[in-house]
Each structure stands twice: as structure tokens, then as C-alpha cells.
Amino acid sequence: MAPNLSEEEIDDLIYFARAGEDAELAWTLKELAAREGVTEEEVLEAARGDGQATCLHMAAANGNSTQASSKPSNSITTTETESLQQQQSQPAPLSDQLPSSSEEKTPFIDAKNAFGNTALHWACLGGHLDVVRLLLSRGASPAVANDKDQIPLDLAAFNGHMHVVDHFLAQSRDLEGANARGGDEGLAAGTKDVKIDEQDEGEEEG
């Protein structure tokens, strides 16, 4: 059964994740999970803010001292862009919300908001490479598409975050090389559906 959270409790969780209030977030999660008889992961999944964004979305959007891109783009709606621009620039406790490895992946890591974007989409939109690396290492899927059929790589490319694009391309090349040595074809499991090539870097939405 899903936890029964009040609007105030959800607002608190979203704020703590957005502002990087590690201790408060951890304490509140533990308290609510114990009260509701559920896991902390289930509390995180149930806590949805405006636009169905989770705590993980908020933390990913505000994963380092660089704020999300302020320029409008085809990759995201104006409403969501404005929402991201309002995020504070303090580090957020991403690692405290994630499994310790991709083998322990939890469903909420790929949770979508009202626009179909995951936390990885928002991290790519903001150009937060450290957060992108963390999410990928904990099992976030780079192949999940939003409502505009855009994968996280697309948001990085559309907003000019080429350091993030380069990371995806390097990962793809490394996986291709490993598979070739092992006699396999295509990308490794979990990323084989991601079409990453040089033309994606300059691709615009039609």
C-alpha cells in the first residue's frame, strides 16, 4: 500500500531534496517510512511535487553549484524550464537517495514527471556531469524517452552541454569496444537501445 503523505509532508521532502538539507531529508524519510510501515524508497516514490516531480528530480536538477540552463529550448516546456530555473544552487543529497550500485536499482530512479522526464533528463538538461555519472552508476536508464521522444542525451545536446554529450559518447565507444572483444554486437545491456552517434550532437527537434 502506498504511504499516506500529507501535502505539507510532501512539500517538506521536496524542499529538503531541492535545498540539499541532507540530515532533515534523511530524518524525515526514516520517520515517515516507520509511521507508514513502508520503505524509504516507497516514500520517495510517493512524494510528488508540482508537475509530478520526485525528490530525486529536484536533487538532480540542483546537483551542483551551476543552475539549470536558463535559455528556452525545444527540449522542454516553458513551464518546466521556469520550474528548473527556480531551483537553488546548493548541492543536493543524491547519493543518500540512491541504491549503492546499479545491481540494486530501485524503480523510482527512472520515475517520470508529468512531461515524461526522469531525474537523468533533468541532470542532463542542467549539464550536471557529476550527477549524470552518479545516476548512471546507480542504474538510471539512458534510454528512457520523455513525452517528446527525447532521451537524456538529447536534452544535453539541445542545451549545449557538450561535456555531458562527450561522456555519453565515450561510454558508448567503451561499451562497443568491450563487446567487440567479447564477440558481442551492439551496446551493452541497459544502453543498447540508445542511438548515440555524432549526428545527435547537432540534431534539432523536427
From TrEMBL:
Mapped ANK repeat ranges: 115-147
PROSITE patterns: ANK_REP_REGION, ANK_REPEAT
Taxonomy, superkingdom: Eukaryota
Annotated Polar residues bias: 62-82
Span list, region Disordered: 57-104, 176-206
Pfam families tied to this protein: Ank_2
SUPFAM superfamilies referenced in this protein's UniProt entry, alphabetically: Ankyrin repeat
Entries under InterPro entries matching the protein: Ankyrin_rpt, Ankyrin_rpt-contain_sf
The entry's keywords: ANK repeat, Repeat
Ranges of biased composition (kind: Low complexity): 83-101
Protein name per Swiss-Prot or TrEMBL: Uncharacterized protein
Organism of this sequence: Monosporascus ibericus
Taxonomy of the source species: Eukaryota, Fungi, Dikarya, Ascomycota, Pezizomycotina
